[in-house]
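hiii so um. not sure if this is the right channel but i have a protein structure encoded as tokens and i wanna go backwards to a sequence. like what aa goes where. can anyone help
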């Protein structure tokens, strides 16, 4: 967590210098969209961690563990497609009516938002596979993957805007590529770490019936958390100019260091609890 956060913080001046403070505001808006879309997570992310943590401590649950990942994975891919379509077809409205843009061509903003739709959507299956690995208490593996992929995403973005094209569109094209790679890597590692089973792994509707109460409670908690932490950015990007919102985003990046103290404890303790 420290490495990826420090890397992002260290590269922020480069993003601002090359792309401009207005573009940095759009980068923060993308992160806000990712956070808000978590409302559609429906609590399944925390649920898969809990269920696999429980089942992995019991013998004879190999098939059930694989079914949970298969079933929730199917749901998550459906949600990913849905959220991608919603953002994609709302791109013109967002760029013209919501973002207070006085700097960029509206068509360029619309194209950028469409690219954001892919980065947001791919976070759904990626977060599920990551949560599943945490449920199996493979924290060290997850940490290694996050360090490598975080470096790949951040340094790759810098190389792209410095050597290929210093535009916000190029930045987000790289974000899409990085998101695809992250999704593939986490998918490979979760299936490698799940116990083998001779029984075919299929979608099982009974799993959803079993976990929906816990998932619903976690979903409500997530909605409240998202409203408390993201509502400011949704409102301010409508009120402030992109330049002002960019400076606000820099302050957010600086303040986010406090989460370095909290997140590692939560990630490590939750599956065991």
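sure thing!! here u go:
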């Amino acid at each position: 967590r420290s490495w990826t956060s420090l890397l992002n913080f260290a590269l922020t001046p480069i993003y601002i210098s090359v792309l401009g403070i207005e573009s940095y505001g759009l980068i923060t808006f993308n992160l806000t969209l990712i956070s808000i879309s978590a409302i559609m997570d429906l609590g399944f992310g925390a649920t898969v961690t809990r269920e696999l943590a429980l089942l992995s401590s019991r013998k004879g649950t190999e098939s059930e563990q694989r079914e949970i990942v298969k079933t929730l994975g199917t749901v998550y891919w459906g949600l990913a497609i849905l959220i991608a379509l919603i953002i994609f077809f709302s791109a013109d409205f967002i760029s013209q009516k919501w973002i207070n843009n006085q700097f960029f061509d509206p068509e360029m903003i619309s194209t950028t938002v469409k690219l954001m739709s892919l980065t947001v959507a791919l976070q759904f299956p990626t977060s599920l596979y990551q949560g599943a690995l945490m449920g199996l208490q493979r924290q060290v593996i997850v940490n290694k993957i996050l360090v490598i992929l975080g470096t790949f995403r951040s340094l790759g973005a810098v190389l792209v805007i410095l050597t290929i094209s210093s535009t916000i569109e190029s930045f987000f094209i790289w974000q899409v590529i990085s998101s695809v790679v992250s999704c593939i890597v986490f998918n490979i590692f979760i299936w490698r770490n799940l116990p083998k089973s001779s029984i075919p792994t299929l979608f099982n509707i009974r799993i959803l019936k079993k976990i929906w109460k816990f998932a619903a409670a976690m979903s409500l908690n997530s909605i409240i958390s998202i409203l408390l932490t993201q509502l400011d950015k949704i409102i301010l990007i409508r009120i402030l100019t992109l330049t002002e919102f960019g400076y606000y985003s820099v302050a957010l990046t600086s303040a986010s260091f406090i989460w370095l103290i909290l997140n590692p404890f939560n990630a490590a303790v939750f599956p065991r609890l």
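oh and The two ends are 21 Å apart (CA to CA).
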